[in-house]
């Protein structure tokens, strides 16, 4: 797409931020309506009791993969310029960070994107947990936790295996990657049919997933046509949450970019969707122990997400959509650690059903 008309009338930073805002609004609205949640999906899977969350996640995941791979096939997305493929990534960070993130999202009853979506509906538990997540993420990126993160990340990198592109390692063609994604789509549809998921919920799940290739497409178009260098990227929340926090706390004048528009966009999209469907409701913590559990989970997600190079959406779905090796390691680690953590909590009588937040409210 030719963005010349817009670039002639809007400065590049503002256009990037506006694009992030639009993508964020779409993702936030569709994620809120579909009840998109990796935590609930992983627990349904580990407990062998799939309901609506597992097919919703599978549809969003497969839509992101198919959409991104088709755009890459058409030459609309330059995945080789994305951070995940253009520079060495941490394999040890993907594994360790994924484990920490999976454990954290079970304790906090939602991943980073889910907390952001829920906070916009009036969930104060999710709002506070999301703020702690952003603070810890920033501390892990440039603050007191940065040396620890860098030490763990440097243990094993993709430079030692010849790069982070899984398609190059396995010799996968676009036809194979799209077919692979179609299998996940079919699995999601089968599960959805078995548990009678509503059509609108499935469409919203696909919409949330398609926000990811939309982000890849927009940033790729900007990278081709903008005068200043633009980072090709998809949807992620660890780094953008930290950047948004610093934009609020720092003096005016910080550079606007795609990430700065993304987080407010998700919040706005979720708020509007909840407002239109009358799902806004103020909620707080049930007690001190509940609060401690949420904040511990948020802390683990903040450090784990930054160590892994992204959250469940960023390092997981977004990275997986361009078949980054580290993304698949992170995603696998998140699923496994979430299941193990849930079993330990269930054994101690501290866990609830994975769909306890079906009305948009975590337990």
Features:
363 residues, mainly alpha, globular
Our estimate of the beta-strand percent is: under 5%
Supply Rg.
19 Å
- Principal-axis shape: globular
Report on the biggest sheet: none
Number of helices: 17
Coarse structural class: mainly alpha
Series of secondary-structure elements, N-terminal to C-terminal: HHHHHHHHHHHHHHHHH
Spatial gap, N to C terminus = 44 Å
* Mean of residue pLDDT values: 92
Considering DSSP H and I runs of 4 or more, what fraction of the residues is helical? 55-70%
Secondary structure tally: strands:
0
Q: Spans with pLDDT under 50 lasting ≥5 residues? A: 353-363
Notes on the structure:
Residues 353-363 have low confidence and may be disordered. The protein contains 17 helices and no strands. It is an all-alpha fold and 363 residues long. 56% of the residues are buried. The radius of gyration is 19 Å and the shape is globular. Helix content is 70%, strand content 0%.
């Amino acid at each position: 797409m030719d963005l010349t008309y817009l670039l002639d009338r809007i400065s590049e930073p503002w256009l990037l931020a506006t694009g992030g805002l639009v993508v964020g609004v779409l993702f936030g609205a569709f994620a809120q309506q579909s009840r998109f949640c990796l935590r609930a999906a992983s627990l349904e899977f580990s407990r062998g009791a799939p309901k609506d969350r597992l097919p919703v996640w599978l549809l969003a995941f497969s839509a992101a993969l198919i959409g991104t791979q088709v755009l890459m096939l058409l030459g609309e997305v330059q995945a080789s310029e994305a951070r995940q493929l253009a520079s060495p990534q941490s394999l040890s960070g993907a594994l360790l960070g994924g484990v920490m993130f999976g454990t954290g999202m079970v304790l906090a009853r939602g991943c980073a994107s889910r907390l952001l979506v829920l906070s916009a509906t009036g969930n104060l538990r999710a709002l506070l947990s999301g703020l702690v997540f952003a603070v810890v993420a920033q501390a892990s990126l440039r603050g007191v936790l940065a040396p620890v993160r860098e030490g763990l990340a440097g243990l094993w990198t993709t430079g030692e295996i010849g790069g982070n592109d899984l398609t190059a390692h396995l010799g996968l063609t676009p036809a194979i990657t799209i077919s692979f994604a179609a299998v996940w789509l079919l699995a999601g549809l089968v599960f959805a049919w078995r548990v009678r998921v509503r059509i609108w919920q499935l469409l919203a799940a696909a919409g949330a997933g398609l926000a990811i290739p939309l982000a890849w497409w927009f940033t790729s178009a900007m990278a081709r046509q903008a005068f200043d260098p633009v980072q090709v990227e998809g949807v992620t929340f660890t780094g953008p949450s930290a950047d948004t926090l610093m934009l609020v706390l720092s003096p005016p004048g910080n550079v606007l970019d795609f990430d700065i528009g993304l987080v407010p966009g998700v919040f706005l999209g979720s708020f509007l969707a909840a407002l239109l469907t009358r799902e806004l409701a103020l909620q707080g913590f049930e007690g001190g122990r509940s609060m401690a559990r949420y904040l511990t989970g948020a802390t683990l997600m903040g450090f784990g997400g930054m160590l892994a190079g992204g959250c469940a959406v960023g390092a997981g779905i977004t990275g997986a959509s361009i078949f980054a090796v580290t993304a698949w390691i992170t995603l696998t680690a998140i699923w496994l650690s979430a299941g193990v953590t849930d079993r330990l909590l269930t054994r101690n009588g501290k866990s609830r059903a994975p769909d306890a937040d079906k009305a948009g409210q975590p337990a």
